Amino acid sequence: MSIAVGENLSRNLQTLHSFERLLSCTKEKLLLDSHDVAKGDFWKTFEVNVNNALLASKDIVGLNDWKIQYIGGHKFPDIVARINEKQAFGIEVKTISTRNSSWKIMGGSIMESTRIPDVSRIHVFCARQKPFEIKYRSFEECVEDVAVTHSPRYMLDMDVSNNQSLFKRLGKTYDEIRHMKNPFDAFKEFIVEQRKINLKKRKLEDDFWWYSPNSNQIDSLELEDQKFANKMVGLEMQFWNQLTKDVQRFLRAYLLILFPNIIEGNYNDASKWLLQTQGVINPSFRDTFSAGGRKCLRGIDVPKIIYNIYSWKDDLINIFNY
Predict the structure, then answer these.
(1) Which of 141, 166, 167, 160 is nearest to 20 (CA)?
(2) Which of 55, 91, 143, 201 has an alpha carbon within 20 to 30 A of 48's alpha carbon?
(3) 18 to each of 14, 22, 158, 212, 270, how far by Cα in Å?
(4) Residues 190-247 pLDDT 10s
(5) How far apart are CA 92 and CA 139, in angstroms?
């Protein structure tokens, strides 16, 4: 990977302007076609809709030589706008739950092990279904924070002010950090200080210890998120009822996906993970998912846990979209 590629593209104002026109035209086209775009399982189809709109828009704005490549899957970014064999921009597509009134959404791992190597500048293209709205912005500008859930991940906010973006506060550029052997080193001190400030506000004591993987561990990090999280940070203890409702919903959905045996009433592994990696104690773990009994779902009598899972389907879908 060549840093010079990214630097050249970032400094070429004419090319940047062309990319901006491409994204603007794509947004306008999607808004005009909103009746067809913002329907059904929006989160499943929006990536494809964005790709199709980009294909149509590149010719409209006179970028006939650019190639639009839909990547999808678990690669970063989702779509590549290729200028030539060695230079490309990226578009990461995000959708926001209708329950979310803000423009905050979780991004990918800070290690970026699935990043397409020759893509330099990446924009986030984000949409909400009801009402149908679209915002796009450079990835560097909309990263607001880093969160440690099951692994350290970027937190995005399409509305964060430029001087409050994470990289501005760190005093380092996104390119500087992403080319480090271990990007987490750039965030260590920041996260420690943030936690200390939060703990001071709550008048609690904290005892931190940190772990930095070496370079040969980073390549397999995505496959060992759980192990990394266990070793990386000792979290302060909290009770479940001290968490915000949004955090509770995220963890509840994530636990169901990570430990499907919860459905069978086996809570041991899930409660151990919650304590070890999140520092969260939940004395009423069973009641978080089901208090027992049965409910009627579309005319069928089902266990309450099945009814609850159906009710939480939007949260579960959002987890899979991360």
Answers:
(1) 141
(2) 143
(3) 6, 6, 21, 40, 49
(4) 776 766 666 565 544 443 333 344 434 433 433 344 334 433 444 456 889 888 888 8
(5) 8
- What pLDDT shows up at residue 223? 36
Q: How far apart are CA 130 and CA 37, in angstroms?
A: 12
In angstroms, what CA-CA distances link 279 with 147, 206, 262?
Answer: 14, 12, 19
Give me the helix-helix angle, 3-11 and 13-32, nearest 10°: 80
Q: Which residue has the tokens 């592994």?
A: 269
Distance CA 32, CA 28 (A): 6
Helix (H), strand (E) at residue 86 = none
Cα 229 from chain centre: 17
Name which of 7, 18, 13 is nearest 173 in CA terms: 7
With beta carbons less than 8 A apart as the criterion, state whether 151 and 109 touch. yes
Strands 119-128 and 88-96, sheet pairing = parallel
The alpha carbon of residue 317 and the mean position of all alpha carbons in its chain are separated, in whole angstroms, by 13
What 8-state DSSP symbol labels residue 265? T
* Residue numbers in the chain where pLDDT is lower than 70: 1-11, 98-100, 148-151, 192, 194-237, 291-292, 320-322
Of 228, 242, 267, nearest in space to 149 by CA: 228
